[in-house]
Amino acid sequence: MSHVNNAINWKEIFHPRNLLLNLIGVAFITLALKGFMIPNKFLDGGVIGISILVHELVPVPFALLVFVFNLPFIFLGKRLLGNTFALQYLLTLSLISISMASIEFDAVTSDKLLIALFGGCLIGIGMGLCIRSGSVADGFEILAVMTTKKIGLNVSEVIFGMNTLIFLAAAWYFGITTALYSIVTYFAAVKSLDYVADGLEQYTSLNIISSESEAIKSLIVEKFGKGITVIKGERGYLPDNFLVKHDCDIIVTIVTRLELLRIKDEVRQLDPKAFMFIHYIKEASGGILRHKQKH
């Protein structure tokens, strides 16, 4: 295991922006759970889903269950990510438990589709805001990171496998209909979390092959202020003329979602036949990227 910095960054933990994001995130999670999911026996994935399932089976308060079930992941987070993350995680977990134990309001709706969509979106937004604050609201991803090192699967596959067991248990105890709607809730939460955590500025690798490569290089660098990498390649090798080929420049640049369509439109104006393809990436740093505040 790589070395983890165990020094506690109190400024990061109690930064007003991080605290505000955490509080708003917990508010969304509480609304999703109290107003939509728990009254209607709907599950999300992860530790929260397990807590809802156990809460429906045994007379133990949900606030206590979600706190206790998340405690082991705090220690895992401490080992993997350090003391600062562990304390932020503990703070988020405490806020969720307190809000779930102390705030009472009636279910917003009993319509299953509305519960699945709005409950999932709200809890996903809440978890995304907690991530933006430097914390998490559920420990499954920490467990998945450790598990993937032992069994060779990636994090997404491990999380999907663990959540599949939760939804199978939901189908057994609550019926197949509720379990299927819970899966919709889970996917709505995942998509909402991605948009909030990564934002509209999620980075994308745009790759361009064009006969007007020099003009496109100038466009990207001078007009859009983006850095580029030029890979020397060959184009041609067509099925009906395999032996014909010529050198070309493959232009690679890292852009955000908001920039992607604008750059593609202007590239097409320079060369309507330009070949473009994109890779979605989880993270990019260094080089000429838009500077974003570190969370």
Automatic annotation (TrEMBL):
Q: Name one Pfam family in it.
A: YitT_membrane
Task: State the organism named in the record.
Answer: Flavobacterium buctense
Q: Which domain of life is it from?
A: Bacteria
Q: Please indicate if the UniProt record lists Transmembrane helix as a keyword.
A: yes
User: What region holds the DUF2179 domain?
Assistant: 227-286
Which keywords does this Swiss-Prot/TrEMBL entry list?
Cell membrane, Membrane, Transmembrane, Transmembrane helix
Q: How does it sit in the membrane?
A: Multi-pass membrane protein
Cited PANTHER family: UPF0750 MEMBRANE PROTEIN YITT-RELATED (PTHR33545), UPF0750 MEMBRANE PROTEIN YQFU (PTHR33545:SF3)
* Name of the protein described by the UniProt record: YitT family protein
Q: Which residues cross the membrane?
A: 20-38, 58-77, 89-107, 113-131, 151-174
Recall the taxonomic lineage recorded for the source organism: Bacteria, Pseudomonadati, Bacteroidota, Flavobacteriia, Flavobacteriales
